Fold:
Amino acid sequence: MDPAELLLRDALLRRLPSKPAAKVAVVLIDEEALRAGGSWPWDRARLAALVQGVFDAGAKGVVIDLLLPEERAGDALLARALERGPSLLAAGMDDSGEWVLPNRALRGAAVGHVSYDLDRDGVVRRFSSTKERGGRVLPALSVAAARLGDPRRPVPVAVTLRPGYRTWPVPAVDAATVLAGRPAEALRQRIVFIGISAAGVGDRFVSPLSRDGSPDPGVLVEAVAAEAILSGDLMREAPPLVDALLAFGLALLGAFLTEAPGRVRRALAPAVLLAPPLFALAAQAFLKVELAPLAMLLPLVILAGLARVRRAGRAEGDARSRIEELERLQAAQAALRTQDAEARRRVAHELKTPLTSMKGLAQLLAQFNLSVEERNRVAGMVVSETSRLARMVDDLLDLERLGLRDFHRDARPLDLSALWGKRVDFLRAGTSRAITADLAAGLGVLGDPALLDRVLENLVANAVKFSPEGAPVAVALREAEGWAVLEVADRGPGIPPGERERIFGRFARGSAQGMAQGLGLGLALVAEVVAWHRGEVGVLEGPGDGSVFRVRLPLVRRAE
Structure:
């Protein structure tokens, strides 16, 4: 389906009324839980204690949205905890398309797959009820979770399910609360999904309801899908014949309008143009059927274009100007195609590197009898390459989605000093490198906190990457003539003056980067996020050596 069609359907979906989820809840392993319980991955004894706590809170069933294929100490504890009630574990797929199943010690629990079907724009709107690999058929995790709540519910085989996404939000409790034994009434008599939401860990997806187009933790998407199944909030696509009949009817009305007097045409044209989205909205709201509003609108657009061309043909001057306009459009499209081909070539080349590395590491694990230490080291390298590949894809998606967002709709007042102060503390805790911070207090701006965090994260990560081992990174935030000014200084090789503007373009890499890995999208994302916030970004020569990246954002108030 065309991406524009998908985006229009999402927009219509967000106009429909929603209601809170009543049958599922989630327990999130977030940053607070990791600070309280230790870095990820947790040992099986801690996961067992978390499952025990969820059942103690009165959960009707437990779904662990984590892949647990390795045998670990404490598996027996986790297996006993899962035996307290209905339970479900996640299974995934490896690069060869084979199932990645829970280890044998945990096979007493039911298993469901977490393989989603992404649309061409990278958004999760549908999934297969079952999938078969190597002679083994597994239900989707959300389908199997719905059966925990209703054991008599049949599992549809090889059916594409489309959640309506109208049961939102899902009650969420952080894992630290459960492990501390504090009351968690939101979990009582619900199917409870356990998954990770901490930044940089676990899978994330964009759904039609993701706020500002930012990815949500996979466990939240799974929980929403299970709630949709249990509450009957599933959509079905209208047969093509229905779309065709509606389009034909609108085309007949459009043909009448093209020949109608000007006053009649002006009076009825808005109603006819609004008919496709209104039909689609009504069908989604009352019939749970998805129409194709663009398909219905296409005949009207064609008729309007033909009528316009016919009127334009009456004057030779107008015809000539339209030909010139078409030629300009054709030239612009050719330039865009050239740029797109170069971008695809660059992306394919860069993505091939981690994929080749992961393939070689997988062959090493499969073909050689390695010691436990060597297997763990190679497995860690596979995880590192996978994370690198995921970051590349996330950067590409983030850049594409940013252009679809409206600043006046999405930006909100926030305390930039407090926001970046917390982020510096988080970044400092994740590295042995000294990160100094001199942040003026109370600087307020209009913006999106998640996007502004990405700006600081990317600049600090670049400073750490290109500075010598042990060299500190300095972060400063101050007020200057109505601007909030961020400066991130490193001790790296510096950036030649001729490259200081070019490095902020997509796929651009400075000569000082040498063989550094990446797509060259980090600074492009910084530049586009800052521009979206009506700000400016640049790079200066450091006072001694290295570079100073400077970001200026319009200051709207003193936060205090």
Q: What stands out?
A: The mean pLDDT is 79. The chain has 16 helices and 24 strands. The longest helix spans residues 316-367.
